Amino acid sequence: MERNDADAAARRAAASQAIRDATGIDEAMINRLVEGFYARVRDDGLIGPVFAERIDDWGSHLAQMKLFWSSVALSSGAYQGRPMMKHLPLPVDARHFDRWLELFRETARDLCPPVAAGHFIERAERIAQSLELGIANANGVLLGVGERFVRGTEAWRPD
């Protein structure tokens, strides 16, 4: 069993290094991205209050988000949390995810080289879609292809 664990760790490290080499992403870049993004989030009129009502210790939250983005962007395995469970009770919908993505894209493009920004943004888009689908399901709404979850309405399909 220890050999399998060692093999898995070696494969993870090699995959992570390949991503670092291809994108230039490292922990320092992840730190800048997370700090810059959440500074924008806190100032935002739509999603800022959602975070402010739930986060008392921003230092701890940012530390967790840096681990999360290390896992997502570098396949590091640093984050061991359950993000879906944390997001299910939030009073958010497509509008909030769209704003979250808008701020994330802006921050990534402002702070990261293009290849790294694209890598982060692609993953952020998948995360937002997954969380929106999970929240919709938790609220008894099954979304079809192209539909979005907007609270208090039927499923919404963009034009």
Looking at this protein, list some descriptive labels.
7 helices, 69% helix, 0% strand, mainly alpha
Brief description of this entry?
The chain contains seven helices and no strands. The chain is mainly α. The radius of gyration is 17 Å and the shape is globular.
Strand proportion: under 5%
Largest sheet: none
Query: What is Rg?
Result: 17 Å
Low-confidence stretches: none
For the termini, the CA-CA separation is 53 Å
**SS field, number of helical segments:** 7
Strand count: 0
Helix and strand sequence: HHHHHHH
Fold blueprint:
Elements: H1 2-23, H2 27-43, H3 48-52, H4 58-74, H5 83-87, H6 94-111, H7 114-138
Helix pairs in contact: 2-4, 2-6, 6-7
Characterization of this structure:
With 159 residues, the chain is mainly α. Helix content is 69%, strand content 0%. It is built from seven helices and no strands. The chain has helices at residues 2-23, 27-43, 48-52, 58-74, 83-87, 94-111, 114-138. Helix 2 packs across helix 4 and helix 6 (94-111) runs antiparallel to helix 7 (114-138). The longest helix has 25 residues, at 114-138. The protein starts with a helix and ends in a 21-residue tail after the last helix.
